[in-house]
Write a structure and sequence with these properties.
The protein is of the alpha/beta class and 199 residues long. It has helices at residues 11-20, 43-53, 76-97, 123-140, 161-164, 176-188; strands at 2-6, 25-30, 36-37, 56-61, 101-110, 148-154, 195-198. The chain has a seven-stranded parallel beta sheet with strand order 3-2-1-4-5-6-7, with helices on both faces. Helix 1 links the parallel strand 1 (2-6) and strand 2 (25-30).
């Protein structure tokens, strides 16, 4: 398969390459590096990326940022940051990418454990992750030509604990490799509308 991987240089993206790269052709994409670049916050950038890449069998997103701030500090502007990046960025991938995904292909989006298990300073992340999972369930019943869509919802990654550990006290981390295996299930399997929990 020809797989477009957004966020290829990140922790999860590298694990996805390790998991799928030996079996498939990976087109690496990032905001500033890769075979092609994209800024998911800009619709025109997403359109340009797909025009450059052409037809693919699968689109995998391992990217998306949200602010981690106490509720009292989450202004509308900060909420919009998370919405424009991780949520609407992935929606844009589906909106623009559907015409470039071959019959029977797939989208795999990234959400996260905070959709069901909130933390202090994680309200924006919980909102965005929950919306991604809901979007996947809804889009699965309308995508044309047998195209599938799923989300992968990991706990905090072990490799990211140095940065995010203080936010996730009491949470069991998971390796990026485990999350990448869930990506493999989505890409190489046949299910659609699923949230693959990696907790």
């Amino acid at each position: 398969m020809k797989i477009l991987l957004i966020g290829a240089s990140g922790t999860l993206g590298q694990a996805v390459i390790d998991e799928l790269g030996a079996r498939h052709d990976i087109v690496r994409c990032g905001r500033t590096s890769g075979d092609v670049t994209v800024d998911m916050r800009e619709a025109s950038s997403v359109v340009a990326m797909f025009r450059k890449v052409g037809e693919v069998d699968a689109v995998v997103c391992a990217a998306g940022n949200v602010p981690f701030l106490p509720l009292a500090e989450l202004t509308e502007t900060r909420y919009i940051e998370g919405l424009q990046d991780k949520l609407l960025g992935q929606v844009r991938l589906v909106e623009s990418g559907t015409r470039h995904v071959r019959d029977g292909g797939s989208f795999t989006l990234i959400s996260g454990i905070l959709s069901e298990q909130p933390i202090v300073a994680g309200a924006c992340a919980s909102m965005v992750n929950g919306a991604i999972d809901a979007f996947v369930r809804a889009a699965a019943i309308e995508l044309p030509r047998g195209i599938r869509i799923n989300s992968v919802s990991p706990s905090v990654l072990t490799e990211s604990m140095e940065s995010y550990g203080p936010f996730f006290r009491g949470f069991e981390s998971v390796s990026a490799g485990r999350a990448a295996m869930a990506v493999s299930r989505s890409v190489e399997g046949r299910q659609t509308g699923q949230m693959y929990k990696v907790w």
